[in-house]
């Protein structure tokens, strides 16, 4: 009997906690986004497991089968679409597979890979989170009756955002690695957008545009690195 079956045997959803009995594996490299998911799961009654890369996620999935998997498309060791494609054809299949990203094309990529749905970042609505999970569950797994939900936005820990910036600063130290530069550009664009840090988000978007056009990136990269260091030097990051 797997982790999900054991939970479902003892827990039943309620009007205020409609995801009670579900285990959700969140595959996400951003600590800020992970904290948002933790709060969403806490308010909804779901149990959360976390993995920060494809390798870690696959290790989790060798041990247990969660009720749902939420996969960020941009991960340090590859695209989350790879994992979504694997999960979509695995038997027995995970009940719910969702992609998540701050990129405008993220939903198209996730659904093409086989995801059941998509969560656009920033993910801060309890109602939207619950609806995405519940709508993809098999009919026999969906709770009956009305739901009572407060849709006040969740507020992740600002210290988690600082951790993300410290991670980005480490990666930016190796600016000659093209693969890691592509990763940190996408990473900063997503976490800055989720944190409402518009200045850093715009700088990361400008860097992504310059890389896509093949134009020199040195000045834009220096701007991004400077903004990251400014925030790390400040007492409060956001």
CA(first)-CA(last) distance: 44 Å
The total beta strand count reads 7
**CATH topology type of the largest domain:** Rossmann fold
Mean pLDDT: 91
**The CATH superfamily title of the largest domain:** Response regulator
Radius of gyration: 18 Å
The profile of the biggest β sheet is: 5 strands, parallel
The secondary-structure class comes to alpha/beta
Can you name the CATH architecture of the largest domain? 3-Layer(aba) Sandwich
User: Which CATH class of the largest domain applies here?
Assistant: Alpha Beta
* H and E string: HEHEHEEEHEHEHHHHH
InterPro entries: Bact_response_regulator, CheY-like_superfamily, Sig_transdc_resp-reg_receiver
Modified residues (4-aspartylphosphate): 72
Pfam family, one: Response_reg
Keywords: Phosphoprotein
Structure write-up:
- This protein is of the alpha/beta class and about 240 residues long.
- The chain has two domains: about 5-140, Response regulator (Rossmann fold, 3-Layer(aba) Sandwich), CATH 3.40.50.2300; about 160-235, no CATH class.
- About 55% of the residues lie in helices and about 10% in strands.
- The chain is built from ten helices and seven strands.
- Strands 2-1-3-6-7 form a five-stranded parallel beta sheet, sandwiched between helices. A two-stranded antiparallel ribbon has the order 4-5.
- Strand 4 and strand 5 form a beta hairpin.
- Keywords: Phosphoprotein.
């Amino acid at each position: 009997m797997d982790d999900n079956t054991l939970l479902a045997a003892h827990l039943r959803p309620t009007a205020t906690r409609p995801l009670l009995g579900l285990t959700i594996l969140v595959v996400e490299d951003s600590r800020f986004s992970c904290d948002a998911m933790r709060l969403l799961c806490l308010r909804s009654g779901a149990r959360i497991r976390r993995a920060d890369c494809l390798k870690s996620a696959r290790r989790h999935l060798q041990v247990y089968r969660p009720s749902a998997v939420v996969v960020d498309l941009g991960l340090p060791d590859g695209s989350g679409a790879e994992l979504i494609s694997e999960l979509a054809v695995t038997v027995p299949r995970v009940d719910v597979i969702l992609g998540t990203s701050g990129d405008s094309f993220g939903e198209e990529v996730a659904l093409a890979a086989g995801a059941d749905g998509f969560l656009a970042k920033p993910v801060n609505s309890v109602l939207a989170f619950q609806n995405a999970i519940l709508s993809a569950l098999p009919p026999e797994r969906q709770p009956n009756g009305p739901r009572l939900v407060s849709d006040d936005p969740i507020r992740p820990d600002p210290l988690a955002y600082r951790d993300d910036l410290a991670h980005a600063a480490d990666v930016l130290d190796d600016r000659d690695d093209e693969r890691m530069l592509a990763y940190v550009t996408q990473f900063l664009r997503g976490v800055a957008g989720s944190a409402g840090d518009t200045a850093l988000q715009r700088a990361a978007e400008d860097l992504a545009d310059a890389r896509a056009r093949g134009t020199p990136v040195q000045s834009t990269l220096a701007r991004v690195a400077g903004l990251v260091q400014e925030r790390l030097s400040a007492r409060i990051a956001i």
